[in-house]
Amino acid sequence: KGPFVKQVASRNPGQGSGGTGAMGLASDAVNAGQYQAARLRMPQTEAKVAALLTGLDARWPYAKGQPLRVHILGVDYYNAYSLADGSIVVAFGLLDQAQSDDEVAFVLAHELGHVRLGHFASQTAATSKAHLVSRLGQAFLIGAALHAGGGGAVSAVMQGAASRADATNDFLHFLTNVTVEPGHTRAQEDEADCIGFDLSQAASFAADSASARVFDTVQADQQKRAVVTSDLNAQLKQDLGQAVSKGAAQAFLGGGFSPGGLGMGLLMGAGRMALAAGASNQPPQHRPPEERKRGVAQYSTDAYPEGAPLRDERHVWLTGVRGTGEYAQGKIAVEAVNDAKTARGKGDYPTATAAIGKAAATSFRAAPLVLNEAARLRDDMGDAAGAGALFVRANANPDQTIDGYLDFGRMLYRTGQNDRAVTIIQEGTARFNNDPKPFL
To answer: 3-state DSSP call for residue 4?
Structure first.
């Protein structure tokens, strides 16, 4: 119905993403866990989301292409995104913050629209490259801080600041790279809004009221995340100001240099690269909420000249999702890991330890989301052996990420365990597509 679907029909929907390279890369990213650093295996919740998604997909009138898969991310974002391999990635925060079944249905229908309309191309590879480049810049900068020279009280202050900067940088990296949302164009987002409206409306959900609230909540969530990121960047800069002195940079780079020389230029360039990491992960090009509301309202008028049915929003599905023990355990784990990351960045190790202990007491204790953060905390506290044991457990999990291997290898190298560091690097390279670049 309506002008958008006429345009879609002329493009022969159901033919996939338009490029197997993008599909293959997206599939590898999901299957290998490269980007899903926060994945939680929640089979009951995934099944409920998949059932809702299947009901929406049943209203798609064209060829469907690849099958759909559902993944849950253990972050408090009000968000979901789709990948070219048919994966719909749902943040825990969407399920926790939504006020009705209809909201979740509209968000899922929007992402389903991206999949069924084939809104994917080479931007996935570009995101992968940005992820790698920002990570290399961060490693260089934090390496300079952690190799601070000198002795006595000054060195202890610098080392403490460097550890806090390292932890804050981990949190920033997590916030900006835990999702790998494809950079859809504004036209593609407009199409997905309208297709999402049609699919959720056809499945008897209240698309009018739910879509309006979704647009407002997504905007508020993005603004909240921007404030958190800005605060963390300010904290990182402050700690680095205490940690990265000329002596520290000289010890890291080797050899003497003047403040305006090549070494300092490299260091400051790496710093700019690291602090701009968030900008490298460009979000989809959504219009402002009021524009999206007006656009969907106009589409509703065009596509439903007799008026779309008015319905009350429902809560039965959400009540069922939130009523399981699995969901309750997931909520504890997500909140506790977030609290641990925040406290670790401030150097508040007792609070961080208590928080990660809460996560470790849940049924998600073996998830890399929990184990990697516990390992980083033990490393910051000087317990390399304890951190290593936790990293080993995380590596045994099928959802372990590149970041887990990177941080494990970096810790081993920093503590003089060079041979073991090389072994971990080799294992990580073999696990993630035999690609050595992330470990350079």
So the answer is: helix
CB atoms closer than 10 angstroms to residue 2: 18
Q: At what angle do helices 101-117 and 207-243 cross, to 10 degrees?
A: 80
β-bridge pairing 39-40 and 69-73: antiparallel
Q: Which two tokens stand for residue 50?
A: 């998949």
The whole-angstrom separation of Cα 214 and Cα 425 is: 43
**Which residues are CB-contacts of 315 (< 8 A; sequence separation ≥ 6)?**
100, 101
Separation of first and last alpha carbons in the chain: 52
pTM score of the predicted model: 0.82
- Give residues with Cβ within 8 angstroms of 50, minimum separation 6: 68, 70
**Residue written as tokens 């992820």?**
131
DSSP per-residue codes, 39-87: EE--HHHHHHHHHHHHHHHTT--S---SPPEEEEE-S--S-EEE-TTSE
Tell how far CA 390 is from the center of its chain: 22
Q: What confidence tens digit (pLDDT) does each residue in 28-37 have?
A: 444 444 446 6
Is residue 351 pLDDT above 90, yes or no?
yes
b/e per residue 51-77 (b: at least 16 CB within 10 A): ebbebbbeebeeebbbebbbbbbbbbb
* DSSP bridge pairs for 39: 73
Residue 416 backbone dihedrals phi, psi, to 5 degrees: 80, 10
